[in-house]
Amino acid sequence: MTTTEVVPRPATAAGADGPAVRVRGLEKRYGGRAVLEGLDLEVRRGEVFALLGPNGAGKTTTIEVLEGVRRRDGGAVTVLGEDPARAGRAWRARIGVVSQGEPAGQALSVRETLDHFAAYTATPRSTADLLDAVGLTDQAGTRVGRLSGGQQRRLAVALGVQGRPDLVFLDEPTTGMDPVARRQFWELVRNLRAGGTTVLLTTHYLDEAAELADRVGVVSGGRLVEVGAPDELGAALRRVATVSWTEAGARRQVRTDAPAAVLRDLLAVAPSEVPGLTVTSPGLEDVYLQLVGAVPTTAGGTR
Ligand SMILES: Nc1ncnc2c1ncn2[C@@H]1O[C@H](COP(=O)(O)OP(=O)(O)OP(=O)(O)O)[C@@H](O)[C@H]1O
Ligand SMILES: [Mg+2]
Q1: Ligand 1 neighbours by CB, cut-off 6 Å
Q2: How far apart are CA 169 and CA 16, in angstroms?
Q3: Residue pLDDT, tens place only, 263-300
Q4: Which of 13-17, 50-54, 174-178 has the lowest average pLDDT?
Q5: If you take atom 9 of ligand 1, which residue's CA is the nearest one?
Q6: Are residue 153 and residue 258 in the same domain, yes or no?
């Protein structure tokens, strides 16, 4: 080498130790109507993170800001060490996107579509592997416009992971998929995770979040209202158990954060037997419904 050049450390390497995604105080308004009002979110490198939240909560909006395709009105956003609003092509190549819409190029066959987009990718996964991974091998020759809704989602997923991204955004990837396709997709996500890929997905299927995600976050009222491992989410809410039994032919029910005390009281009255006695703790779906305000959260009292 005859010239001495100072090679700048790539901006992506600068963020290599930080989280894959860091969002602080994200704000977004549509025509003056606030959708996101200070959303905080952190996705760790290599984890599968599921965003939950009701229709219209702002999940897609959040993901689009992170992908750099939607402008934000406030807040700080870092994705793989860069601000998506300013990041360039090298950054984009490290991101995989499966958006909520349908794939373009309806006139091409599935195989042609995958081959077409492979040409824009530095080290694409092979079309045969992708077809196999999403279960579209038998439809390889079918025109995209002729695919069923679930098959289109499968193709979208294949396109999203084609470029071996470090981070993949999957916006409702399994909507419309049949149970078999959904399990194939779960397997694909587990393989991505095993290979070190970070995955941020949205879903309305809480079993899917519980199955796949290291952590889940709930978006409601413009913010991330809760985040945690699927079985820890809403720890305070989970402590509330429901004790129910049958008394004088009618079902009685008490919601309590001290089920042992309730049981003690019951057994004091009827030491030999409490007919139909059950004690249940809320599952992920119960916790979710309480977090988004769909059911009351108050403990105690008989219903
Ligand atoms: N381009 C847009 N122009 C105006 N309003 C929009 C636009 N995109 C989204 N919105 C509104 O912003 C809110 C959040 O939408 P978003 O698509 O982010 O919700 P979501 O959480 O992804 O919902 P879903 O679960 O139904 O996919 C909704 O009220 C929606 O109507
Ligand atoms: Mg959405």
Answers
A1: 30, 35, 53, 55-61, 100
A2: 18
A3: 999 888 876 788 899 999 888 888 888 888 877 654 44
A4: 13-17
A5: 61
A6: no
